[in-house]
Amino acid sequence: MKIPFIDGHNDTLMNFENDVQPFFSGTKSGHIDWPRGVNAGFAAGFFAVFCPNPDTDPLPVAYKTDKGYEKPLPPCLKYEYACRYTNKVVARFLQLEKQSKGRFKIARTIQDLDQAIAGEHMAGILHIEGAEGIDEDLNMLHVLYEAGLRSVGPVWSRANIFAEGVPYRFPSTPDTGPGLTENGKKLVEECNHLGIMVDLSHLNEKGFWDVATISRDPLVATHSNAHKICPVTRNLTDKQIDAIGDSNGLIGVTYSINPNMVTADGGNNEGALLSEITKHIHYIADRIGIDHVSLGSDFDGTRVPKAMKDVSGVPKLIALLRKEGWSEEEVEKIAYKNWIRVLKETWKK
Ligand SMILES: [Zn+2]
User: Which Pfam families does the record cross-reference, listed alphabetically (predicted)?
Assistant: First the structure.
């Protein structure tokens, strides 16, 4: 039985250059498009705006260490570049709604999400992954809010004027650098004020605890897994998972295998099983409760296991959750009800 789901993170917007029509007609590449999404039950998702570094990364082999790998933080972005890039991708997001003939709606309120769950349209939650395109006076934050922005991850991996993210390192704790800057603290306060969710994924541990201290909203990591199972910097320690539970927050479990955030070996693992993804869901639910775990694919931002393939694999994951013993009510919480609860508390409308 197909049920609707809300997904915590995708990088699908960056797949489209100028024309977003291929999203609706269907693409052969990538993980999400309209036909495959609707078919799988993708009711709503966080659509990230991510600015790549203008230079290309060296080959991953250069990062090998004795026990795993270590990738240094990419250089900081210039505001002008990031701002222009952010505008370009947000404009694309606006086009998705405009060209959808009512099939795609920007999620500005909980009602937009409820309607998506009811099958009236697909809903997109606008998310910034790395706030380099936002100025220190936060004027751009207010402009983007009016355009539909409802979620901000202060950092991707590289440092910016707000905070510093984790470098990709395995095995390693997420405690890799300094916490939020004064600008970062103001950003969190202003997000609270506007009703924008703050995403903890990619933040280093000191930054995480700074947000936990300042924010009045539930703590959320949209695409991160359990560090106990896969000790990569991007995953959450037990203490972080507990804090998210205590705040009535939420973790979106990611399917990323490059970097591998799923299996214990940490290496690129296309053969990872769906049961190795659900293992993280069980671990988090056993520790802090079923109300605090959900899905956060990272589709179109990473490689996913062959068994998942693309968004069409999500119903298989949901079927596996049922097979592993979750009741229908519990499966619905993981699929979308937990996201609705947390966003209701955060957006306040
Ligand atoms: Zn990410």
Answer: Peptidase_M19 (PF01244)
Ligand 1 centroid vs 106 CA: distance in angstroms? 21
Residue 90 has pLDDT above 60, yes or no: yes
Is CATH 3.20.20.140 correct for 5-347? yes
Q: Where are the alpha helices (DSSP H) in the chain?
A: 21-25, 34-40, 79-98, 110-117, 139-147, 182-194, 205-214, 238-246, 274-288, 314-323, 328-332, 338-347
- Quote the ligand 1 centre to 117 CA distance (angstroms): 25
Tell me what percent of the residues of the chain surpass a pLDDT of 90: 90
Q: In which residue are the tokens 């079923």 written? A: 290
Residue 306 Cα to ligand 1 midpoint, Å, equals 20
Looking at residue 349, the DSSP 8-state letter turns out to be -
pLDDT attached to residue 59:
57
Domain extent listing, the chain: 5-347
User: What separation in Å is there between the alpha carbon of 236 and the centre of ligand 1?
Assistant: 14
Please, which contacts does 319-322 make with residues 24 or more away whose CB atoms are closer than 8 Å? Answer: 320/274, 320/275, 320/278, 321/278, 321/281
Q: Which residues of 194-205 are buried (b: 16+ CB within 10 A; e: fewer)?
A: bbbbbbbbbbbb
What is the C-alpha to C-alpha distance for residues 88 and 140, in angstroms, rounded to an integer?
A: 14
- For ligand 1, the distance from its centroid to the CA atom of residue 222, given in whole angstroms, is 9
**Pair of tokens at residue 163:** 């905070």
Expressed in angstroms and rounded, the spacing between residue 152 Cα and the centre of ligand 1 is: 12
Say what the pTM is: 0.97
